[in-house]
Amino acid sequence: MISVTDLRNGTKVEMDGGLWECVDYQHQKIGRGGAKMVAKFRNLETGSIVERSFNATEKLQDIFIEYRQMSFLYGDADEYTFMDLETFEQPVLTRSQIGDGSRFLKENTEVTVDYYGGKPLKVTLPNVVELTIVETDPGVRGDTVSGGSKPAKLESGAVVNVPLFIEQGEVIRVDTRSGDYLGRA
User: Fold this and answer.
1) Do residues 40 and 51 make contact, with C-beta atoms less than 8 angstroms apart?
2) Is 65 exposed, middle or buried (0-12, 13-18, 19+ CB in 10 A)?
3) Range of the domain at 160
């Protein structure tokens, strides 16, 4: 059990029959009354967000998450096959378990998979990946006054905005959390 005053961002708990991750918390002390905690939780299975208030004396059931290092092998439509780097098992995960980051997956990308009770919950990609541009329009000098960008299709199928001087075939670095271009590799 964990006291609600010990909640921090990323703390994972079990409440209301589901698995939740704390994404925001605030300690409130009101006049002569007792203190209370207001926290936002994200459901680890559905992704929904809920806000709850607790008395400072309440306790929640914390959970043990197992983190496994895996390598992405290949994807078929809506299913993605990974390989556990320790046991060499090959679990198949769906696009909903991976989230929006699935568009940046390429073969042999190492990821972290969160497991609870032998069941995969969430896939965490590296913050930065290097991908090759397979299709983009040529940049024309003098198109813009300052900066400017154009869409570029990457080898993983994702489309990101890149500066005009970037050409097809170049390897670029992309932030997997926001989908932003970071620079040449």
Assistant:
1) yes
2) middle
3) 128-184
Asked whether the predicted pLDDT for residue 174 surpasses 70, the reply is: yes
Q: How many Cα neighbours within 13 Å face the side chain of 29? A: 2
6 and 58 inside one domain? yes
Residues 26 and 71 in one domain: no
The number of folded domains in the chain is: 3
Which CATH number belongs to the domain containing residue 114 in this structure?
Answer: 2.40.50.140
pLDDT tens per residue across span 99-120: 788 888 889 999 998 888 888 8
Supply the CATH number for residue 10's domain: 2.30.30.30
Closest CA to 21 of 3, 5, 35, 39: 39
Of 45, 62, 79, the residue at which a domain comes to its end is 62
Summarised one tens digit per residue, pLDDT across range 12-25 is 899 888 889 899 99
Tokens of 150: 């154009």
